[in-house]
Amino acid sequence: MPSPESQDVAEVPDAGGAAARRDGTAEARRGTSEAAWPHHTVLLLFVFLWGGNFVLAEVALREMAPISFSVSRFLVGGAAMIGLLYAQRAVRARRRGDAVRLFPRIDRSDWPRLLVVAVLGATLAPWLGIEGLGLTHGARASLWLALGPVLSTGIGFVLRTEEIGRTGYVGVVLAGLGTFALAIDGVRPEQGYWLGDLLLLGALLAAVAELHLIKPLASKYGATSMVAARTTLGGLLYLLIASPSLVGEPWGSLGLWTWIAILAGGAIGVGVGQWVKVRALRTLGPTRVVLYGNLVPLAALLIAWLAIGTIPSILEGAAGALIVVGSILLQVLDRSATGTVPKAETSEVSTSG
Length: 353
What we know:
It is a single chain. With 353 residues, the chain is mainly alpha-helical. 81% of the residues lie in helices and 0% in strands. It contains 14 helices and no strands. Helix 2 (15-60) packs across helix 12 and helix 5 runs antiparallel to helix 12 (296-308).
C-alpha cells in the first residue's frame, strides 16, 4: 500500500520526469543504433563474400567434380560453424558452471524426423545445388536460391502456418514472374540451362521442406542444437556418398583459387557467415538480416561480371530484379507475414552456399 506522501507526489504533474523519460528513450535508441551499426557493416561485407562464394565455386568446378567440391566445402564450413557454436556454448556454460552440451538427448520418436531433415538439408540440398551449379553459372544459381524464402512463405500460407498481406501478394506475383522468366531463359537453345535449373529447383525444394520439418524439433530442442545435429548426420552421409569421387580427385594439382574456394569459402563464407547471422539476429531482428540475404544475388551478378566476365542475359537480369524485389516486398514490407524468423533460420542453417 503506497504512503500518502507517495500518492501526493504521484498526483503532481511531473514535466521534468516526462522530459527525462523522453531523453531516456532517445538515448536508448541511440544506444541501439550504436550497437547495430557493426552488425550492418559486417553483414554488408558478407553479402559480397557470399556472392563471391558462388563465383569461387564456379571456378573450382573447372578442376573438381561437383560432389567432391561440395562435400569438401560443406565439411569445412560445417566444422567451422559447429566449432564456433561449441565455443559460444562453452563460454556460456563456464559462466553458469554447467556442462557443455551441443547435442541434446533426443526422444526416440523424434529420430525419424531428424534423419529426414538431415538428408534433405545436409545431403540432398547441397548435392543437387552444386550439380545444378555445374550445369549453369554462379550468378544464376544465386538467383534461384533467392526464391527460397518466397517459396517457403507460399507453402506456409497453403499449410496455414503463415499469413500474407496485400503487399506480400504483390511480392509473390513479382517473384513468380521472375521465376517464369528465369525458366524461359534456361530452355533457350543457346543457353541450355534447363537441367541445371531443375537441379537447383530440386535443391531449393529440399531446403524448404527441411525448413518446415525442422520447426517442431527446433522448438523442442533449440535451433542451435538441431542445426548442429542435422549438419553432423547429413554431413557424414554426404561424405560416404562422395567418398569414391573424393578418392579420385587430383588434390596435389588443384589450383590456388580452388583451395581458397574450399577452405576460405567453406570456413569463412559458410561457417563464420552463419555465426555472423546468428549474432546479428539478436540485435537487428530477422527481417533486416533476411534483407541482406536478398542482396546476395546482386553481389554475385556483379562479382561474376567483374571477375570472370559472366555477363547476365537480359532475361536473367529482369528475372533477378523481379525475384529480389518480390522477396523484399514479402519479407520486409509485408507486415502481415508471420514466418520471418524461420526464414532467417533457413539462411542460418544452410552450409551449401
